[in-house]
Each structure stands twice: as C-alpha cells, then as structure tokens.
Amino acid sequence: MKQKVIIEARRTSYSTSDVGRTMTVRELIDYLENFYEDSPIYLSHDNGYTFGGIMERDINSVEIDEDDED
Prior knowledge:
alpha+beta; three-stranded mixed β-sheet; 1 helix; 11% helix
C-alpha cells in the first residue's frame, strides 16, 4: 500500500522562543517509524491550499546559547 505523509505546518510565532512545545528529533523519528520507509513527506501550508517538500538541504542545525534561545 502506498501512502503520503503530510505534516500540517502551522505558523504560530515570529520567534522560536515563542513557539512553545515542539517535537524533538527522537519523537519525530519514533513517530515516522509508523509509516512505510519509502513514503514521501510533504508540508501542508494554508490549510492544505499549498504544499511543499522537504529535502536534506532544507534542514539546518543552529547552536543555541542556553541563556538566549532565540
């Protein structure tokens, strides 16, 4: 059976420090294990009006100072 994984992207803040709770890498990995490993992943924007894909080049790591998480 084929399936698509669609992540509903929600814009909740202009700053990461104001987002509140978000999944950790481990939680996301554990959750994605429920899907077929060859399932494509899409981001849904604007209540499903527009979509985008995720590529390796789209994922970045930013070091944070524990005193200033912005």
